[in-house]
Write a structure and sequence with these properties.
Layout (H helix, E strand, L loop, with lengths): L1 E4 L5 H13 L3 E6 L4 E6 L7 H5 L4 E5 L19 E3 L2 E3 L5 E5 L6 H14 L3 E3 L17 H14 L2 E5 L6 H7 L2 E4 L7 H8 L5 E4 L6 H12 L6 E5 L17 H8 L4 E3 L1 H5 L5 H10 L4 E5 L17 H17 L5
Parallel strand pairs: 7-8, 7-14, 8-9, 9-10, 10-11, 11-12, 12-13
Antiparallel strand pairs: 1-3, 1-4, 2-3, 5-6
Helix pairs in contact: 3-4, 3-11, 6-7, 10-11
Bound molecules: phosphoenolpyruvate (PEP) and manganese (II) ion.
Amino acid sequence: MILTLKRGISRKEIERLEKKIKHYGFKPHISRGAKDITCGVIGENAILLKEFFESDPLVRSIAQISKPYKLASRQIHPKDTVINVGGAEIGGKSIAIIAGPCAVENRQQIICIAKAVKKCGAKFLRGGAFKPRTSPYSFQGLGEKGLKYLAEARKETGLRIVTEVMEISQIELVARYADVFQIGARNMQNFNLLKEIGKTKKPVLLKRGISATISELLMAAEYIMSNGNHSIILCERGIRTFAKETRFTLDISAVPVLKKETHLPVIIDPSHSTGDRSLVPAMSLAAIASGADGIIVEVHTSPSKALSDAAQTIDVPAFSGIMKKAKQLANILGKKL
Ligand code: PEP
Ligand code: MN
């Protein structure tokens, strides 16, 4: 339920209303729009309280939130959410480029790639230390050692670190080194992990599950938000379809659909979605043209030698080419890269 508040309402009056909402066992969510201040009443069957608020002099009108996701919905928060990660913005007029290898392989590899992508204009470095691999015999990541190398790469370059956390027991450790938690596609509906991540304050890059609908992705975000953490970046990374020519099918229309439904930033992963480095430049640019707030892309100084996801990993010259075109596109769209 959304309450549109009386014009000129004071801070004290808002506090009084918030208290009333909490008193009934619901969570208030204030949003300041250009014209109106609204207050979401979050919780199951909040609409049953309608009559208690209809007569409140602080409330001008009441609307029901029609979607199952509440805090994530644009209805409750019409303005775009912009997430600031150490001075670099994701969302709004900014296009965020997150680049780096699939996995941290050794110290020299990650620092060398970090320097290269920074030179091309990336502001974020990706790299997994804990890797969710399809086969238990594949490289599983360096663990804490990998996180330490990522922190070293940040110190050398100033890039912000995006890295995956796979389970609850890793949250504290990963939080010590990362600037943004990544929740992988395979964990999108690991609700216990989502709840615990929701209790932290770090931004979260939440990937769409391999067979998840857009609504399920938004409900996963809702799990994190309802536990207190509202800094979420949604990522379309391809879904499973009957098409065999690509590893997954990039659902590019998910971008405008999500933009309509939610205020959260939306990015695209052109690497995992295609599984083919020759397709990555076109999909990166398509992402930006579709209105995405950025991309997360796998880049390596020697892609063919990458320990994981070599086939979809681009080299530095290809990344540099994408960046040049992406800047032009950003200009056309009135955004900055
Ligand atoms: C990754 O980004 O390293 C990754 C494993 O991606 P996804 O969870 O989308 O498969
Ligand atoms: Mn990968």
